[in-house]
Amino acid sequence: MVSKMFLILVLVHAFTVVLVEGSVELTLPNDAFDNSLYEDALDPELCDEQIRFIRTNAYLTAFFADAGIRIPKGVLHGNTVEMGNYYQCIGLNQQLPNFELQGKYCTIQVPLNQSFESPLLRDKLNIDPDQLYFDDNTVKILTELNALKTEQIALNQASHQKSLQDSPFSALTLNLGICIPKPCTTRQALNSFLNTDISALGFQYRDNFCRLPNDKPWVPGDTVIVVIFSLIGLITVISTSYDVYQTVILKNDPKTVSVIKRSFSVYTNGRRLMTFSSGPGTIECLDGIRALAMAWVVLGHTFGAEGFWANPIVAYTTWSPTWRSIWVRGAHITVDTFFTLSGFLVVYTTAGKLTGMNLLKNIHLFWLNRLLRMFPLLATVVLWEATYLNHMSDGPYWAAVANRVEVCRAGWWTTLLHIQNYANPSTMCIGQAWYLAIDVQLHIISPIILFWVLLGNKRIAWGALFAGLLAILAASTTYIFIKEFQAVMMSSDAVRQQDYLSNYYINTLTRASPFFVGMVFGYLVKTTKLQMSQLQAVCCWFLALSLSTFIMYTNYPLSKPDWDPNNQVLDNLHNSFLRPSWAMFIGSMIYLCVNGYGGPINWFLSLSFWKIHSRLSYGIYLFHSALQLVVNYTSITPVLFSVGLMTFKFLGHYTLAFIVSFLATLIIDAPCSTLFKLLLGGGPKKPNPEGELESSKKTDIQQLDT
């Protein structure tokens, strides 16, 4: 056993070293764009020469004007972004007799508050937004939008901004795309095109970034990922060919076919993945709960991950704070569903199968299996986001994707070690992987309770479970009352917002209670059978669904702009007991379904349709966010917000993540899972794929909860 563990650690270490070797050079430099390319291209004399030529050519003059700066459409609806025509601009590359004319796309930030002076003007021209006449409702809406933009700026720049002025227009800044020749700076180009000194006129703006063709350097990590996936593809083809030849063409008994040689077979792994039979002890409703919870995660991120809205007033202030958006704004609670399921399965799959002493003797396997089960796909996504993600597409605001790539190049190791929620909470690689970090941390400490549960004495087990739950509730509640966090995720106070995210939302202490509630229900389902009348069952469902509805709608008054900030006690109580209450709802639903009182709800959650979605939920969770980012920032114009459009985009995002997760699970996760089980002595006992799959599902330590 020791030698097998050593071999596993060597394999994991080898993969990590490959990742490190690529990432070490990735971080020297760490930039996703080649900044020297922009600096080396600057040439003031050549810039003047090219602009003089452009001004004598009507087509080129129209070309640069058409690809560049213009007033955003829908400013009064909150839109401050006009991207120009990114692909038209950088697509210009003409070899002229004296020089090469190459377009360069830049974005600038122009404050709406401007004062102009010119000899042609008799008086100074002031553009003062505060003097514009709008109705009170428009002013109120713009004020709220301005507060939300302040919060977003603070989060994106990972710094605390000073409070903005009271005017709804005081910080209104236009983000404009501009097309200029390659050797020019934006200021020289604007001065030359307009044939005047714009700074002397009083026109003020800030440079944001510039883009040129082929400005994404190919780094060693890109080579690493190409080599790794090429090798995996080659091994997959060989393994599949061997498997098909042995079991289909020669019709050999699967018992005589090497499991290792066909471990990467698409044929065998595909049959396992698509087999939906269930064995004894399987809780069917868990598949539906897990699948729907994951869909809810993707839905919430779909509404929150859009780059730019053409009508942000409608999105942020007309729709978002109303009761109609509760089904989206409450999506954050679904993560506590996964914590609940994780704690539930830790107890349910071990109670009656292991003893407390066996757990202690094999605690290294308990931890190792959990880490290894999550490692292949997690390492794949980390490597992908640190490398090839940057080359998948492009767009005028691709800098957002590049920033994610740079974050992963700098902090990938904290993700693989599951410590990023503490090591680098504001710059996490794979931002949604904070959940995995907390889940692993909870699994590491779970044997403290699990040992007493597995002793076989029910009184001791219940005492340990409730003592653990009460201890974590007392500790987290005390911490929350001391820190006094806000009650909802969105806030106009950037300082409190960042404090909430870093010290509450991704903090193990404040998120642990659903896991412990899940442990209680896991033992309850395992050891206690429920007997009640149909009327009592209906009453239980009414109470459970009422609890879930109450939890959802508590977000509504707390997220209103007029919520009194002095109601800190209510905020603290909300933060302390909202999540364990949701876990109570999930646990009660499972308990009723398992004992035959689920009715149509259990039928719906137990449909075979959910099984494939449940099995792919871990991959969907890891892949969907980066895929959304790529799709959204490939856009060349702000998107008009509507619930119908965003629902349609959710279906597209979920389908794309489903396909990618299916392929990754088939080619990477399933083979690695088979190899890990063989090395740990837990290989399949039955030769047929159906038996192997269900055996894998029922293995407690290797059960994947997400």
Mind explaining what this structure looks like?
The structure is a single chain. It contains 32 helices and seven strands. The chain is mainly alpha-helical. Strands 1, 2, 3, 6 and 7 form a five-stranded mixed β-sheet that branches. A two-stranded antiparallel sheet has the order 4-5. β2 (93-95) and β3 form a beta hairpin. This is Nose resistant-to-fluoxetine protein N-terminal domain-containing protein. Pfam families: Acyl_transf_3, NRF. Residues 1-22 form the signal peptide.
Class by SSE composition: mainly alpha
Mean pLDDT metric: 83
Residue share in helix: 55-70%
Low-confidence stretches: 1-29, 121-134, 149-171, 683-706
Domain module count: 2
**Biggest sheet, in brief?**
5 strands, mixed
Total beta-strand segments: 7
Cα end-to-end separation: 28 Å
Q: Tell me what portion of residues adopts beta-strand conformation.
A: 5-15%
CA-based gyration radius: 29 Å
The backbone outline, from C-alpha atoms, is globular
Please tally the helical runs, counting DSSP H or I stretches of 4 or more residues.
Answer: 32
Protein name: Nose resistant-to-fluoxetine protein N-terminal domain-containing protein
GO molecular function, one term: acyltransferase activity, transferring groups other than amino-acyl groups
Pfam families: Acyl_transf_3, NRF
Region (Disordered): 686-706
